[in-house]
Write a structure and sequence with these properties.
With about 100 residues, the protein is mainly alpha-helical. Helices cover about 70% and strands about 0% of the residues. The chain has two domains: about 40 residues, no CATH class; about 50 residues. It starts with 13 loop residues before the first helix and ends with a helix. InterPro entries: NikA-like (IPR053842).
Length: about 100
């Protein structure tokens, strides 16, 4: 037996249907799932590109490498605290930008 027993017929004109299909394609969700998410008040966003997760992993690796370099530089005394803080600030800014925009 189906869990969803209520069917709601919906009539759309060509423009509305084209817009719906475009949004569904961007979300990469099945049409019914997309409409259910809208009905339940959920925010439906475009699914990230396939390379998004790989990009985040690379940026995270970069952040880890910079952090390790900063620790070594501080321990050996070959850099100033100001340059380490600036490097850390830049890495965090890149991380935030990537995370928010993609």
């Amino acid at each position: 037996m189906r869990k969803r027993e209520h069917v709601i017929p919906l009539r759309l004109n060509k423009k509305e249907m084209a817009y719906l299909e475009k949004q569904v394609a961007m979300s990469r969700m099945p049409r019914e799932e997309y409409l259910r998410a809208l009905v339940m008040g959920g925010e439906v966003r475009a699914r990230p590109c396939t390379h998004h997760a790989d990009l985040l992993r690379k940026v995270a690796g970069l952040c880890n490498n910079v952090n390790q370099l900063a620790h070594v530089a501080n321990r050996t005394g070959q850099t100033s605290q100001q340059s380490v803080e600036e490097m850390t600030r830049l890495v965090r800014a890149v991380w935030r930008a990537v995370k928010e925009q993609w």
